[in-house]
Amino acid sequence: MTQWIENPEGGRGRGPRGLARAWLEVLVRPHRFFRVGVSPGDQAPGLTFLMTVVLVAITSQYVFTPESFPSLPVSPLLAGTFWISLVVLLVAPLGLHLLSALQTLFLLVIVPNRAGISQTVQVLAYATAPCVVVGVPIPEIRVLACLYGAVLLIVGLRIVHETSIIRALLAGLVPALLLFGYGFGGMAALETLGVAIPW
C-alpha cells in the first residue's frame, strides 16, 4: 500500500522505506513529487501516508500532553491506545474522504479541466507531511508545520490539476483552513501565540 512512483512502468516501492522516501520527497521536492508521485485511481498509498502522519502526531501529543485527551477509567497505556487508534483508524480516513469531497466541489466550480477525485485525495493526504511534528507542545512548530502543509496543498492542486496558482489558491483555501487550521490545530496554536483571529 505504501507505494512510490519512480518508474511508472515498474510501480511504486512498498513498505516503510517507500513511505519514508515519499515523506522526504514531498517535503524537499514537492513539485517533482506531485508530478510523478500522484497517479489516477491510486488512493491507498495516500491514505496510508496520512494515517502514518496522524499516528506520529497523535502519539507524540499523547506522550507530551496526555491531559489534552479525555480521561478514561483505565490505565494510561490502554487510554492512549484507545484514543490513538480512534483517531488514526477512524477519524483520519473519514476526515480525509469528507474533505476530499469538499475539495472536489470547490474544484468543480473553479477549475474547469481537472484531474480525478483519487488524485485530489492523494494531494490532500501528502500535503500533511509536515504535520508529523504538530504533537510537540511548541505552538511555533505547529504553526510552521500547518502553514507549510497549506502551501503544499496549493502547490499540489496546481500541479496535479494543471491549473493556475490563483485558481489553486481559491479552490484550496477552505479545505486548507479546515485541515491545517482546525484538523491539525494551526488556529489554536496561533491563538496560543496571541495572534488575533478575526473570526
Automatic annotation (TrEMBL):
Domain of life: Archaea
InterPro entries attached to this UniProt entry: Yip1_dom
Transmembrane domains' residue ranges: 44-64, 84-110, 117-135, 141-161, 168-190
Keywords: Membrane, Transmembrane, Transmembrane helix
Mode of membrane association: Multi-pass membrane protein
UniProt GO cellular component terms: membrane
Subcellular localization: Membrane
Species of the source: Natronosalvus hydrolyticus
Major location (coarse): membrane
Domain Yip1: 25-184
Name of protein: YIP1 family protein
